[in-house]
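job 3f2a | input accepted
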Amino acid sequence: MGKAVQLQRQAGIEAGLGLQIEFKSQPSIELAFESLARSRQHIELLNVRHDEAAQTTFATVFVPDGQLKTFENLVTQYLENDTGKGQPRNAPLLNTIQQIRVATFEALWTDDKSALPADAEQSLWWEFWLPVRDDRESVLQRFRSTAGACGFKISQHVLYFPERTVINVHGTLAQITQSMALLNEVAEIRRAKETAEFFDALEPNEQRQWVDELLARTTIADNVSVHICLLDTGVNAGHPLLAPGIDVQDLHTINTEWGAHDNHGHGTGLAGVALYGDLVGPLTDSGPVAINHRLESVKVLPAAAGNQDEPFGALTIQAIAEPEFAQPERKRIFSMAITSTDGRDRGRPSAWSATVDALAFDVLGERLTPRLIIISAGNADESEYLNYPASNLTDAVHDPGQAWNALCVGAYTQKARIDPPSPGYQPLAPAGSLSPFSTTSLNWTGSPWPLKPDVVFEGGNLAKDSQWACTHSSLCLLTANHQPHKSLFSTTWATSAASALAARMAAQILAAYPQLWPETIRALMVHSAEWTERMQQDFLTGAKKADYAGLVRTCGFGVPDLGRALWSAADSLTLIVEDELQPFMKQGPKSPTARDMHLHLLPWPKQELLDLGETDVEMRVTLSYFVEPNPGVAERGVKGRYRYESHGLRFEVSRPGEDETDFRQRINQRARDEEEGIYQGGGSDTRWLLGTRSRHRGSLHSDIWKGTAADLSGLGMLAVYPALGWWKTLLKEGRVNNRARYSLVVSIKTQQ
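job 3f2a | predicted structure (752 res):
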């Protein structure tokens, strides 16, 4: 201990002095590692590792200066004193220990051994997990000072967890092992994840080795499975990573003179993401890769730039018709990352967005085949990148992203490390926040239009210096190159890449549950989404309902999670309803009236909720349906008889003690007030984050109720009921007695 403290003082460290000790268990005997920590003496358990081959456990402990005597006393008591049962004192702990030694780098390495570089002089990024101890910021500051003195480059951004602080450090293994002062501040060390830069910079023959290794452990579904249909610049299906997942006969074009191949690279890049996700993940993992969907492509544009010779709505109709005519029975997800170049519509329906709504609703097909269409939100003005995030808050979602029935996808980013380090450059957006590329609908506030984007997926980041911002491959997603003879890998980014990830998740859900409706897939994706802590820190300006509406208009409902979505679809305590109702009716000469209201009993175990008492719980409700669009006069508003939507649907939950009769009467009164334009909100449970005025926009409504388990036990019913639409007001169209589908997802979450 004395020598360790002396070395630390020589390095200029005056606080946090101590020694790291490693304990090794007896073979096949579990180490009682919980007993190694001593909070009163500030002895901290740093990490626990298992050696499966040797059947041993290792635990690393930090012992402050002057506290080594604590372990000496444990050993003395073991040797000299017995318990009342005649056993040596501290036997449960000490009998499991085979060896005690001063910790080295190996004691702090908790990542896979294969992640260690073969060359100790290879410079790369490492994750250093720091303990919190008595003062998190003091530990972090000491580490920064020591690492800087040792010549390491340190990441600007830091991740905070309850008992750990994670910071990235760039250097060599040799540098790390030579600095005992640095290691003394660390709880564990891992290798930072590789970025697209690593693979993009490889020589072609090295790239081929990585591709072959990935293909050897990848299985892709057969031709009868779910397909993602990309409406873009075409796909070059000869790429070795894409060829197993897309057939030549599934390459289409709306203009035979263009061909179906990709001259630009945009479509092929999205194909790689739609099939594999960000390729960095499957390339660096070592396990099997199972892909349960395939791809189709329709070349809508000869290049990424727009073509204004024909209305984009007409081109979209033609593009969707091509694969459906060729394979009419196939289950598919449509994904389109083509948008206008600005957001001047400010949520107002356009000819293009209304066409997307009509296609999703399947107006031309008489509603027999509704479609899930995923659309990118469009990218922010690149001339304003350095004004992030203020510029994103005024740059509106681009046409046709305002489509009510589509799933509109914005972008966030977790990519906040430039590799290799570029002097003078740093990531523009912090990890977990809105991507600099993403557009929002904040400037639609005060309008009747939907909350967009609906969700966000990874879209990459930008690097900035004092003068400009630019893309950097390490801040992008890795994908397939449209010119594989030159390079197998390329990068993609922005809301286009995010929309391809969204399409991939939708296909994964549909492959797992092929009977689900498109409305339900959309509902499950939104229902599974959560805001990151950083999003709330950056964009949640208060705790009012309008503040949460602003967060949704910026980051959608958050980042969807496939595991949560699939769990919701399978969990018995999640209510999933696919049903239809008749919103309106007209009998004889009488004026049309509202007709159906559906009541659903919430499937919670009431007694268990009562037993949880004051435990905090969340109930989430998501209602998804498609509307038949009616653009034109309604583009100037939704008052009176001129409505864009064929019908609206709403949800409401009963109050504690409210019986079915009272609940129905309250909902009927609210529906009448809303139709007459006199409903101003209020009257509902105040514990909803958004509330009725904010959530009931568009054709996708999601909200979260927060309260105690005991209070939730009193909420027994949920109503789905109609709101005014042009099916009721435009009688000449003959739609007043039409029926409408809807999907409803309700779940609860506790901290237990």
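job 3f2a | The longest strand covers residues 740-750.
job 3f2a | closed
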